[in-house]
Amino acid sequence: MEQTEEIEKKPFEFNNTIADQTQFKVATVFEGKCTLSSYNRRDFYKISLIVKGTSELLYANRGIQIDKPALVFTNPLVPYSWEATNGAQVEEGSGFFCVFTEEFLHAGNRMESLQDSSLFKPGGDSVFFLDAAQVQYVYGIFSRMRQEFDSEYVYKYELMRSQVNLIIHEAIKMQPAVAYITPQNAAARIAKLFLSLVEKQFPVDSPRFALKLKKASDYASKLAVHVNHLNAAVQEVTGKSTTTHINEKILFEAKSLLAHTDWSVTDIAFSLGFEYASYFNNFFKKHTGTTPLALRKSL
């Protein structure tokens, strides 16, 4: 059964005015009825330590059977689903997870972008099976982080940042899991993950935000599939092309921003991935028969 429900339906919120405490969280997998796919936000990276149960981590066209202790790295911009197998349920002692922003680690002078790291990039090594000694070592790090998280120690986030880096370096030293499986009905899974990735880009909440994924090829790169494969799967499953889905979502968001914000057309164009306002005007008029300003005035 796919597990997508967030912890108690109340995921913690990031507040840019309070840096570390809003850019990092650590918890047990069982804590707060956590499920395997909790905290799939576009700005959160996630490291999970699974020590009990069997499950499958499924990407667009590949999957990994997790039937022994494992350390798992997931990137918020690479869609995945995590499904328990054989009716297994999350139970106490299943493991730990931590979530964090790239800014959290950059505060510790880490220069490499996490999206470029082999641990997090599309098609990279994301699952590492652990032997008994590695389980003990990584479990100990997570346990200490969890204890520190509730402490009043002034420099606890510096300490936890160092502990996250210890886990990352431990994984870099390991041999990755390579026993990939081919998910059933790959076209349906590719289409589902494509649509999930489209949704993750919205809503646009700042005129300074610009869409990172604008074309079918951008999505194909994140899903680690060929763009032709992506186009064929989405067309087969939904009856619409990838471009149609992307354009429909951009148009919906554009109308919402025109109606509910005071942003200029130039700001809206930039936030939706258009280099120039004229490109946005042409796109909008082609698909709606009117201009953005004309639509705003009519509302």
From TrEMBL:
The keyword Transcription is annotated on this UniProt entry: yes
Domain HTH araC/xylS-type: 217-298
Superkingdom to which the source organism belongs: Bacteria
GO MF term set: DNA-binding transcription factor activity; sequence-specific DNA binding
Annotated keywords: DNA-binding, Transcription, Transcription regulation
Gene3D superfamilies associated with the record: Homeodomain-like (1.10.10.60)
Transferase recorded as keyword: no
InterPro entries: Homeodomain-like_sf, HTH_AraC, Tscrpt_reg_AraC-type_HTH
Pfam families: HTH_18
Stated name of the protein: HTH araC/xylS-type domain-containing protein
Taxon lineage: Bacteria, Pseudomonadati, Bacteroidota, Sphingobacteriia, Sphingobacteriales
